[in-house]
Amino acid sequence: FQFAMSPYEDWKTLAWAGALIGLLSLAMLAWLWWLLRPLTQLEHRAEHLFDGTQDPHVGWPTAGGEIGKLARVLSHVGAERAQLEAANTHVMRRLSSVMSASPVGIAFTRAQKFELVSDEFCRLFGRTEAEMLGQPTRMIYASNADFETVGPQVIKAFKAGVPYVGEWQLMRAGGSHFWAQLGGSPVGGFESGAGIIWTLNDISEQVAARTQL
């Protein structure tokens, strides 16, 4: 016996098949979304790991496996960094207070650029803080030869484990020169690259007196 299906039954069968495929596709998409959701959340949270806009302990996925381990590691790194930044901010505030009250010119440099300068330091050079921050340290020396000479002397002192002290002719904003006693000490040891704290005194009168004698 042969049974022929009517066009209506054909359409009905195709409709059921299409509906079943659609449901399976939706289920597959939902399953993939559920699997990838922790990874997407981790990616989004990691983008803001170091910008300080979110609590370092909040927003991480609670998934298991490798994603969960990575989330816990990154959360720990973010928390440690936040604590370090808070400590650095506290130290910088205290340093700024000391620098503001000091009668001696004080500057903090890193990679041969000014990152902090005291009021007295700015006054000695006739410049504002904004005019000095971020600028190369070369700008305060009377000549390129002096700038190239002082570097090896500073390195030699730091390698010997002693602060650097020297007398140099420096240059103000208007181009005039003055003699200064320059002292420097590395922050965190010479090899750390954390920067150098400089002190500066105007000794023009003392140098003039010695010259006269």
What does this structure look like?
A five-stranded antiparallel sheet has the order 2-1-5-4-3. It contains six helices and five strands. 54% of the residues lie in helices and 17% in strands. The relative contact order is 0.07. Strand 3 and strand 4 form a beta hairpin. By secondary structure, the protein is an alpha+beta fold.
Notable features of this structure?
alpha+beta; five-stranded antiparallel beta sheet; 6 helices; 54% helix
Summarize, please.
With 213 residues, the chain is an alpha+beta fold. The chain has helices at 7-47, 65-101, 119-125, 129-132, 144-159, 204-212; strands spanning 105-110, 113-117, 164-171, 177-186, 196-202.
The helix fraction, in percent, is 40-55%
Q: What are the secondary-structure elements, in order, as H or E? A: HHEEHHHEEEH
The fraction of residues in strands falls at 15-25%
Biggest pleated-sheet summary: 5 strands, antiparallel
Topology readout:
Layout: H1 7-47, H2 65-101, E1 105-110, E2 113-117, H3 119-125, H4 129-132, H5 144-159, E3 164-171, E4 177-186, E5 196-202, H6 204-212
Antiparallel strand pairs: 1-2, 1-5, 3-4, 4-5
Helix pairs in contact: 1-2
